[in-house]
Amino acid sequence: MTNAVLPETHRRHLATLRGMPAVLDAEGLRIGHEFVMFFAEAELMHGHATRLTEGIARPDVLEVGLGLAVFAEQLRPHRVGSYTAVEPHPGVARLARQRVLDTFDPPPVVLTEPWQLLTFPIGAYDVIMYDTWPPDGHADRDFATFVAHVAIPCLRPGGRFSFFHSGDTVNAARQQVLDQYFAGWAVHPYTMPAALMPPHWTKPTRDFLIPIATKGSA
Ligand SMILES: C[S@@+](CC[C@H](N)C(=O)[O-])C[C@H]1O[C@@H](n2cnc3c(N)ncnc32)[C@H](O)[C@@H]1O
């Protein structure tokens, strides 16, 4: 988004996130005390990476919300043309670099500002993955803004968009955004096997959707 100003709620939320340490352990990544991503979500992220890239030779990929870099790890075998990640927490970005990105080929670009303050190139990506941590109560509004101002302008015609989705139903607000902006979209259910659940699992369910929305080719 060009010349954007971060709203006060987002500014405070981001300052809080950045003020907490990023901690890696055997289960996953915490910011402060809260787990943001688990290694157990690798199979889920494998589904996103595979469905987003299949049939596209050397896709240019943008991920918003690098986190533990589980998606990036699953993306690596798909041989991308380029990979750009957005992660505004410097400690999170550093851990992801050390654990995954330093050996990524081609070398990734990591942007360390919130997506709202960045200007992304128009029509430059084949694939966009959105998995961020908005302030409470802002998830759907941020999603709509991201689709309208980043995903649609920055995807190439026919490009694919996905987002992290916990639970088995896309809510009406998101359905409306997907219907309005994309030529088509589908969801692919995934249930994490109980045996994979880490001891400190905090997410509301083991049921997820892998949504894939496709930009029109016009
Ligand atoms: C759930 S994690 C992402 C997990 C990641 N997809 C993975 O595979 O490991 C969400 C991340 O979004 C980041 N984030 C928070 N606000 C953001 C913003 N405005 N723009 C981009 N990323 C943001 C958080 O710092 C956090 O690391």
What Rg do the Cα atoms give? Answer: 16 Å
Q: Report the helical percentage.
A: 25-40%
Give the overall silhouette: globular
Number of individual domains: 1
At CATH's second level, what is the architecture? 3-Layer(aba) Sandwich
Q: Average pLDDT, to the nearest integer?
A: 96
State the major sheet. 8 strands, mixed
Number of strand segments: 11
Number of helices: 6
Task: Indicate the proportion of strand residues.
Answer: 25-35%
Q: What is the CATH superfamily label?
A: Vaccinia Virus protein VP39
Oligomer: single chain
The CATH class turns out to be: Alpha Beta
Descriptive labels:
binds S-adenosylmethionine, alpha/beta, 218 residues, Rossmann fold, eight-stranded mixed β-sheet
Please describe what this structure looks like.
With 218 residues, the chain is an alpha/beta fold. It has a single domain (8-214), classed as 3-Layer(aba) Sandwich (Rossmann fold). Helix content is 30%, strand content 27%. The strands form two sheets. Strands 4, 5, 6, 7, 8, 9, 10 and 11 form an eight-stranded mixed β-sheet that branches. Strands 1-2-3 form a three-stranded antiparallel β-sheet, with helices on one face. The chain is globular and about 45 Å long. 38% of the residues are buried. S-adenosylmethionine binds next to strand 3 and helix 3.
Write the layout of secondary structure elements.
Blueprint: H1 8-18, E1 22-24, E2 28-31, E3 34-38, H2 42-53, E4 60-64, H3 70-75, E5 82-86, H4 90-99, E6 109-111, E7 125-130, H5 139-154, E8 155-163, E9 165-166, H6 172-181, E10 184-191, E11 207-214
Parallel strand pairs: 4-5, 4-7, 5-6, 7-8
Antiparallel strand pairs: 1-2, 2-3, 8-11, 9-11, 10-11
The chain binds S-adenosylmethionine (SAM).
S-adenosylmethionine (SAM) binds at residues 17, 36-37, 45, 64-71, 86-89, 92, 114-116, 131-133.
